[in-house]
Design brief:
Layout: E1 46-47, E2 54-62, E3 72-73, E4 77-79, E5 86-88, H1 92-95, E6 97-98, E7 107-115, E8 123-126
Antiparallel strand pairs: 1-8, 2-7, 3-6, 4-5, 4-8
């Protein structure tokens, strides 16, 4: 079931419980010009609801002590497990947010992305 109309029976599997993860480890001295997972990685695994749609919200505090480069925070979403096919690639403009170039102090933000086209009951995992 992908769309709900008046009179549609809503079942428990239509709204699985929300899942979340967080970590407050400060990661210093970035040395990559490409996307790379954090260490430790912050991740969750969930089952796609019958609608085939989920909201993914990512947020955090980012800053660069040198103020010379930008830092981006964005999700990567895969099917089945961490080795599965990528269905949402990391992209700060599309799914995340980034720091300002030259901003040495921390600033905080979040981004909400609607992921669609999931197969109901499918296991979805992060990078």
């Amino acid at each position: 079931m992908s769309d709900y109309i008046a009179g549609t029976r809503i079942e428990a599997l239509d709204f699985p419980p929300a899942v979340s993860a967080s970590n407050n480890t400060q990661i210093d001295n970035f040395a990559s010009a490409n996307y790379s997972p954090g260490n430790p990685e912050v991740s969750v695994t969930f089952i796609a609801p019958t609608s085939g749609r989920v909201w993914v919200i990512i947020g955090g505090g980012i800053g660069n002590s040198s103020g010379a480069d930008r830092i981006f925070l964005s999700p990567e979403i895969r099917l089945n497990n961490s080795a599965g096919s990528v269905i949402v690639s990391p992209s700060a403009p599309a799914h995340g947010f980034g720091s300002f170039k030259g901003a040495a102090s921390f600033h905080y933000g979040s981004r909400r992305t609607l992921v669609t086209g999931l197969i109901p009951g499918q296991t979805i995992s992060p990078e």
